[in-house]
Design a protein that fits this description.
Elements lengths: L5 H5 L7 E2 L12 E4 L3 H5 L1 H10 L7 E5 L4 H8 L4 E7 L2 E7 L2 E6 L4 H8 L6 E4 L8 H16 L6 E4 L6 H16 L1 H10 L5 E4 L7 H11 L7 E4 L3 E5 L7 H6 L4 E3 L3 H25 L4 H5 L2 H15 L8 H12 L8 H5 L2 H8 L1 H9 L5 H13 L17 H10 L4 H8 L2 H4 L7 H17 L1 H11 L9
Parallel strand pairs: 1-5, 2-3, 2-7, 3-6, 4-10, 7-8, 11-12
Antiparallel strand pairs: 4-5, 9-11
Helix pairs in contact: 5-6, 6-7, 7-8, 11-13, 11-16, 11-18, 13-14, 13-23, 18-22, 20-22, 22-23
The structure holds D-mannonic acid.
């Protein structure tokens, strides 16, 4: 079987079921530099840029930059940046060839190439999906080096759009760049501040890590071998603040289905706390209960009930996004998508960085108002149990988290001692300053950790459910 490439595309040597890009890719110069080349970007922004290119606007070709790992960047380069995306929903599966990535490189291997690309005249945008843990000095240094070269060349500023699951992602990135630049050169810092735009944005599409199954399915469906095939759901959202170097970009993106708004906050809060907050709770429960995927978890009636309860009664009262009940119900349907096979351990990774963004704002607001936080106390207890690194059947698993070693050591050290575990793991870096000293929180986490130790997560969850009086305002 031939490998996917531009030549294969030009000969139309693929099966007709595949929707293909047919714009002149070889004539494009990248207008977008994407940092964090991975599955999410390829199933989300790259698809929007593909649609823009398809509409006849040649300014949206992407140079895809992997931060460290070379495998995907090199595999994509071997097939001229092309890949097939499987889109699975209740209506069935369809396949789309995506052509917007016209070059790839690896930041750790070719930092100068990244700097040169940021400073290239054709570059207009930088987009980022580098994950929560990357917002530090190394990222800022890379961006500022490129921006300094751009400034020195007398070129205009860039729109730099963080697409990571952080609240106020654009503002955080802007501050990081300004602080780094100010330490080097105040003129440069002023230029970044005035000539570049850092819009906040919310991105959403569930994109599990690509597997060999995607490759096998792609081969069957297209007749060519695609080492970079991946799968996603039909749903996608990109909500971005109206704040661009070129104001006309707002209309161009909007024409492709991107929502361009004055204030991203209501969308970002709803997405982080409902989708991502539920994801983290599901992933930790699934890991300890030995349920491999999100769909396996929400097929369990008690977990499904718990997630509905968490969203409806604890998270939604603080949110402003319109249409929340429908958003909640759509999320449960998305989680149940049987084609995604979204692994709980993928989502459970980096939980120490995700919990402060996904659970903490709800907790802080509710505790300040004297409202109950019981589902999150239960979820926090599951996280503490998860840190023992073995499921309810005693099967070990790996924990992937920058603080993982330290957290696991603490969990082991206090194993069997509930108050000791709660005290040791309610770290201010994760749970904020107030929760460690708030007995309304620590006592409830301890209560549920005790139940989990005595009964296991599944039976403790059944007890949680039995103890909840039905809320007359929400149908479960
Ligand atoms: C997930 C997200 O891995 C995770 O932590 O919660 O990647 C989630 O699938 C996306 O944000 C959906 O848009």
């Amino acid at each position: 079987m031939r490998a996917l490439s531009q030549a294969v595309l030009d000969e139309r040597a693929v099966l007709p079921s595949l929707h293909l890009p047919d714009y002149p890719r070889s004539a494009l110069a990248p207008g977008v530099l994407h940092l964090g080349l991975g599955a999410f970007h390829r199933a989300h922004q790259a698809v929007v840029f593909d649609a823009l290119l398809q509409s006849g606007d040649p300014r949206w070709g992407v140079l895809g930059v992997a931060m460290r790992s070379t495998e995907l960047a090199d595999a994509l380069a071997r097939q001229d940046g092309l890949y097939t995306l499987q889109i699975a929903s209740a209506e069935g599966r369809r396949w789309q060839g995506v052509g917007s990535i016209i070059g790839t490189c690896v930041a750790a291997r070719e930092p100068d190439r990244v700097t040169a690309a940021i400073a290239a005249p054709a570059t207009r945008w930088v987009t980022l999906t580098v994950t929560e843990k990357a917002y530090g000095p190394a990222l800022a240094a890379q961006l500022v080096a490129g921006l300094a070269a751009r400034h020195a060349a007398g070129l205009g500023g860039l729109t730099i759009a963080s697409c990571d699951n952080l609240s106020g992602n654009g503002g955080k990135l802007r501050q990081l760049c300004l602080d780094t630049a100010a330490a080097l050169d105040t003129v440069l810092a002023h230029w970044i501040e005035t000539a570049c735009a850092f819009p906040n944005s919310m991105v959403d599409r569930i994109v599990p890590a690509a597997t060999a199954q995607h490759r096998a399915d792609a081969a069957r469906m297209t007749g060519v071998d695609d080492a970079c095939a991946l799968g996603t759901e039909a749903f996608w959202e990109w909500v971005i603040e109206r704040h661009f170097v070129d104001a006309a970009d707002g209309a161009a993106l909007a024409a492709m289905g991107v929502q361009v708004v004055e204030d991203v906050r209501p969308f970002e809060d709803a997405k982080l706390r409902m989708l991502n907050g539920s994801h983290t709770a599901i992933a930790l429960m699934g890991a300890v209960m030995g349920l491999p995927t999100v769909a396996d978890c929400v097929a369990n009636a008690d977990i499904r009930w718990f997630i509905h309860h968490l969203m409806a009664d604890t998270v939604m009262p603080q949110l402003r996004r319109p249409g929340l009940p429908a958003y909640r119900d759509a999320l449960l349907t998305r989680f149940a998508n049987p084609d995604l096979h979204h692994k709980v351990h993928q989502i459970a990774s980096d939980s120490s960085l995700k919990i402060p963004l996904r659970w903490l704002p709800t907790l802080q607001t509710r505790l300040a108002a004297g409202a109950d936080v019981e589902p999150l106390a239960f979820a926090a207890a599951v996280w503490m149990r998860y840190l023992l690194a073995e499921d309810g059947q005693g099967r070990p698993y790996a924990i992937s988290d920058p603080a993982g070693e330290r957290l696991q050591a603490l969990a082991q050290q206090h194993r069997g001692d509930v108050p000791g575990t709660v005290a040791a793991l309610t770290l201010p870096a994760i749970w904020g300053d107030k929760l460690p000293a708030d007995p309304r929180w620590t006592s409830r986490v301890g209560f549920w950790l005790d139940r989990i130790q005595a009964l296991g997560v599944g039976a403790a969850l059944a007890q949680f459910k039995a103890g909840c009086a039905p809320n007359p305002n929400t149908e479960h």
